[in-house]
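S.,

Sequence below, as promised.
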Amino acid sequence: MKICDLTFSYTETSGGIRRYIDQKRQYLLDQTDHEHVLIIPGEEDTIVREGRATTVTIASPIIPGCAPYRYFYRPGKIKKALEETNVDVIELASFYACCPWAAFSYRDARVKNGEPPCLIGGYFHTDIADAYVGTPLRHALVDGLGHWSEIISNLGLKIADAAEAEAEDYFSRIFGKCDQVYAATPAQIERLKEYGIGDAELIPLGVDLECFHPDRADPDFRTELGVAPDEPLLIFAGRIDVEKHVPTLVESLKTLRAGGTPAHLALIGEGPLKKELEDAAASIEGLHLLPFQQDPTALARCLASADFYVTAGPHETFGLSVIEAQAAGLPVVGVEAGALCERVNDRLGRLVPVDDHEAMAAAITQLLPRRQELSHNARQHVEEHFSWDLCFSKLIACYERGLSQPALSIGAA
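The prediction came back faster than expected:
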């Protein structure tokens, strides 16, 4: 098979989706005879072929306010890339604008021309309708303007709910045109049912257990940050953006230090809030802003050298960074929302209400004496439940089953 990943969520500083695709390509090259094609937007049109791996970059503009992410705007270029690589399977990780429609057009043309069928799968990596439409609008229109009057607050809530419903309808149509739909957690399968998709495949993600390991801990990392051995080091790795609720982590740090706990917080990654937090770090004791770690081994060193992984984002669909942290031996303090409810229990850390920085700080303080016990539990938990081999073997079995069917969904499209 020629298996293609088509997405805009793949840049030098991307997190979970890029890690998933990189691991998938490596698995295909190491353990199968299949070929892998990656189609992404970039600065210019390029094609790089390395054996059974091909990367096609299509010149595309920057998404305003979201650099370095770019958006596809020429469906014809995407379709041409699909035709030239002659792929058998297309997995969508992006559902905006022309990206999925170019894939559907390619699939339909193959059937019309009497060629072998092409399978299109959609992976529910992000709850876009909630994270990027409903929640931001509610924050802007209800929280931001609601103090003017109850009428404005109620109107803002109605607008946000209506916009999220429209987004759900759009993504429902996209998923409905896919031949297969995948989700990483039971909770996301239930969420897809709200989109009107009732037959999604459960395919949990995995972690590189050799790379992310407690043995990667390096005292020099703490020394570089100026963190003493007896000072708690909290760490977060991900996009420094509003949907990750990073300011809540910073407020938790302030609360800890104000209460007498000499904690430090390392934020690893890039994003729209990075510059603002870098400026603020000069006046916030214990706050450290670190660059995105493209090398997984470097990230593993950072994680294993910390004491707790903290995350405040309520929109996680799986929480890949969380299981990487757990594999590195970190207890997790997060929020009671999204996939974190499935990733963290009392043996592994603590969950607190969304945007409650005082509760987060209190949880960290309470768990400090149990740090070693929780670390052991976290590593053992990941070893028992998460594997990239299991993830991709199940995914490829889905591809093969779909291609073996006499007719794919395009007959009804």
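Residues 214-385 form a domain with the Rossmann fold fold (CATH 3.40.50.2000).

Coffee later?
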